[in-house]
Design goal:
The chain is an alpha+beta fold. The protein folds into two domains: 99 residues, Alpha-Beta Complex (Ribosomal Protein L22, Chain A); 102 residues, no CATH class. It has six helices and eleven strands. The chain has a five-stranded antiparallel beta sheet. A hairpin with a 5-residue loop joins strand 3 and strand 4. The longest helix is centred in the C-terminal third of the chain and has 22 residues. The chain is globular, with a radius of gyration of 17 Å. It starts with a strand and ends with a strand. Keywords: Transferase.
Length: 210
């Protein structure tokens, strides 16, 4: 089973990353889905999406959870029945979860692609990154910013929250491994620590609420 990486985080939190290499039938072994999740999976037309969905259940099993320990609220945010916090991500051949005993958390994995240059102005002011050395570095940095905002969005889980207007990521260097983020929405502000890493052309970003 390709558990790709485990990252122990402060405040009793842990990130687990899976590299999806097995077949769908292999990943189905030993996994019992709730009717809700079974319906969700069967609605996925992509086999890779179904394999990613099942691999998440194997990541949960590493921490002692089964699918019946997971439920979703009206905003689509996942929760654990024991009250711990969880966030889930999948991107192509990698999936990941973050679980925290005490603090709200979010995680996002993204493939580094030039496509991000075309959509960047929809989620961040591009003029902030004029000092970035070259196109490759810009793709990497913008992917981190996107992952950071996605992680914060997963924590906040409020319809109407705008990546561009309500979520701010403190500037950072690619040589760093962390930064901070702020959500300012409807007159309320909240603050987050953000940690990022890169591997095999992917970026993993996770956020922890202060």
């Amino acid at each position: 089973m390709p558990l790709y990486k485990t990252i122990t985080v402060e405040d009793n939190a842990k990130v687990l990353i899976w590299k999806v290499e097995e077949t769908e039938s292999q990943l189905s072994e030993g996994v019992v889905l709730t009717p809700h999740c079974q319906k969700r999976m069967m609605g996925m037309k992509s086999e890779l999406h179904r394999r990613g969905f099942l691999s998440i259940r194997h990541l949960m099993a590493v921490e002692g959870y089964v699918d019946h320990d997971l439920f979703y609220d009206d905003a689509g945010k996942p929760h654990l029945t024991d009250g711990k916090f969880i966030s889930i991500t999948h991107s192509h051949e990698f999936t990941g979860i973050i679980i925290s005993d005490t603090k709200e958390v979010g995680v996002d994995i993204e493939m580094q692609r030039d496509k991000i240059l075309r959509i960047a102005n929809k989620y961040t002011p591009l003029e902030e990154y004029k000092t970035v050395a070259n196109a490759d570095a810009l793709v990497r940095k913008l992917t981190i910013v996107w992952g950071a905002k996605e992680s914060l969005y997963k924590i906040y889980a409020q319809h109407g929250l705008s990546f561009l207007h309500h979520i701010d990521i403190t500037d950072f260097s690619l040589s760093d491994s962390e930064t901070t983020g702020t959500i300012l929405y409807k007159g309320k502000s909240s603050h987050y620590n953000i940690i990022f890493s890169e591997f095999e052309g992917y970026t993993c970003v996770y956020a922890i609420k202060n």
